[in-house]
Automatic annotation (TrEMBL):
InterPro entries: NLP_P60_dom (IPR000064), Papain-like_cys_pep_sf (IPR038765), PG_Endopeptidase_C40 (IPR051794), SH3-like_bac-type (IPR003646)
Record-given protein name: Clan CA, family C40, NlpC/P60 superfamily cysteine peptidase
GO molecular function, one term: cysteine-type peptidase activity
Family, as annotated: Belongs to the peptidase C40 family.
Key word Hydrolase present: yes
Organism expressing this protein natively: Trichomonas vaginalis (strain ATCC PRA-98 / G3)
Keywords: Hydrolase, Protease, Thiol protease
Record SUPFAM superfamilies: Cysteine proteinases (SSF54001)
Pfam families: NLPC_P60 (PF00877), SH3_3 (PF08239)
Domain NlpC/P60: start-end pairs: 149-275
GO biological process, one term: proteolysis
């Protein structure tokens, strides 16, 4: 099960994505610039994650996940080329909206090159030099290969596929996870950037102030350390019906949990996806 991510580029050439490959380790160090001396600005990405490739410089690859861009060693990256795709009959719009100017009509079974996938229900494409947007339903190829009415439901369905996987601290897949690694893995598959560790995930995304407004895909952060009651130490994802899924140290497994009976206080509920 793989959600394909793709980069848009001002050159409009056939695009590639990258898969992180890290022989001998699960980690890839990501920098905020192509100068690796700026270690204070680094964070970690993980094996088997997917990124948009924006370019190369000084032995580094400039990559993007969602709206977050960073620099990683190009040796930790495997390029994947996406072929042209066949479309049904469609209009190309000047912007990702039905109210946009129609740039070009595309006959059925025409071949287009995809430039970007994450465009509010549209794909950004190149058809014979014409650049614009077509509705997702017009493209026979589906990049989000997981069911769901929105990215929240897709994220919830993704974590369900990991039920029963082992908990191991510091892991983010593909078969072992800790609590924040499971959250980050699911949203990476949807081209949505999420930082690592529960305490940082607690600080980003839309704050859901009323628990009655919680929806599948929202993350819930908890304070589980009685010696440090203000410290955020755990995170799970709400999946509906009063339940969340988390990589738990109780049994060291990814499992369901009753949200309303969980014995630890909630820090925040956060929404990383857009309704």
């Amino acid at each position: 099960m793989l959600s394909i991510l793709l980069s848009a580029s001002s050159s409009y050439q056939t695009q590639t994505i990258g898969r992180l490959t890290t022989p001998g380790t699960n980690l890839v160090k990501a920098y905020k610039s192509s100068n690796p001396d700026l270690a204070r600005n680094c964070y970690w990405l993980y094996f088997d994650y997917y990124v948009h490739i924006l370019g190369y410089e000084n032995g580094f690859a400039h990559v993007r996940i969602g709206t977050e861009d960073c620099w990683i060693s190009k040796d930790s990256l495997e390029e994947i080329t996406i072929p042209t795709q066949s479309v049904t009959e469609a209009n190309i719009y000047s912007e990702p909206s039905r109210t946009g100017t129609i740039v070009r009509y595309v006959p059925a079974n025409s071949q287009v090159t995809i430039l970007d996938f994450n465009c509010d229900g549209f794909y950004r494409i190149n058809y014979r030099g014409y650049i614009g947007y077509i509705l997702e339903d017009a493209l026979q190829y589906k990049w989000k290969q997981i069911d769901g009415a929105n990215d929240g439901e897709r994220a919830a369905n993704l974590v369900k596929t990991k039920l029963g996987c082992k908990y191991i601290l510091g892991m983010s897949g593909p078969d072992t996870y800790d609590c924040s690694g499971l959250m980050q893995w699911a949203y990476n598959r949807l081209d949505i950037f999420m930082h690592r560790t529960a305490d940082v995930q607690d600080l980003h995304g839309q704050l859901i102030e009323d628990a009655q407004d919680i929806l599948p895909g929202d993350i819930i952060t908890f304070r589980t350390d009685s010696d440090n009651p203000m410290l955020v130490t755990h995170v799970g994802m709400y999946v509906g019906n009063g339940q969340f899924i988390h990589a738990s140290t109780n049994g060291y497994v990814v499992k369901y949990q009753d949200f309303y009976k969980y014995p630890y206080p909630v820090s925040t509920i956060r929404r990383y996806w857009t309704k």
